[in-house]
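My current task is to audit a protein record that another person submitted. Please read both lines and tell me whether the tokens look consistent with the sequence. Do not assume that whoever made the record got everything right. I have pasted the whole thing underneath without changing anything:

===
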Amino acid sequence: MGTEMRLTRRQALVAGLVGGAALALPHIAAGAAPQAEEEGFGVSAIEDLMREHGALQRLLLIYEAVWSWPRAEGARLTELRAATDLVRRFIEDYHERLEEEYVFPLVERSQEGRELVAVLRRQHDAGREATDRARRRLGELSDVLRPNEDLAPLWGDLRAYVRMYRPHMAREDTVLFLQFRSLLTPAEMQTMGDRFEEREHALFGEEGFETIVTKIGEIEKELGIYSLEQFTPSAAPFSPPV
């Protein structure tokens, strides 16, 4: 085999860490063009993960809208069930698994990375447990609530989930993903993104991410929180402090 077919030391490290995920990168070493270059501008692995964080942010807004809904008008449990289903299927069973299989093993090789990843792993587990409890409680409730129905445990799980995941995502976006990027070449990062896209399409169809975002938008419309403009603070005259 010629030298052009040998993996670089960095590529060998990546392949060894995620070998179970079939991420040996011989086609890059051989000089083959990545899929994204053949089809035009592609989505890198980090861009893929961060846009999925955007989808989760919108799901957290749905959680907040549902628990804030006036009980007199009825709880929006149908929309909440749909949101928790998307959190389970798209965030916990797909997005987080990508992080656990591809990102965490690389970053946790350093002491600093190991400490961060240990917390992130615990939070993934805690989030799944909270989602399990919320889905179990939703399964016990009818769409028409009894007057004395105690929703406090359900709202508690949702609030705990939101409270944890906002700083969780922020730390990943500003620390974890930067460390991850420093360990890969641009070509390796693009190939990683292609792997992510392949799994996304296998699980959610050819328009995987776009399909998920459409479903989120449909829930937002049902709840009346789809319009971005409604989140703009109303203009008020500036009053200097006395």
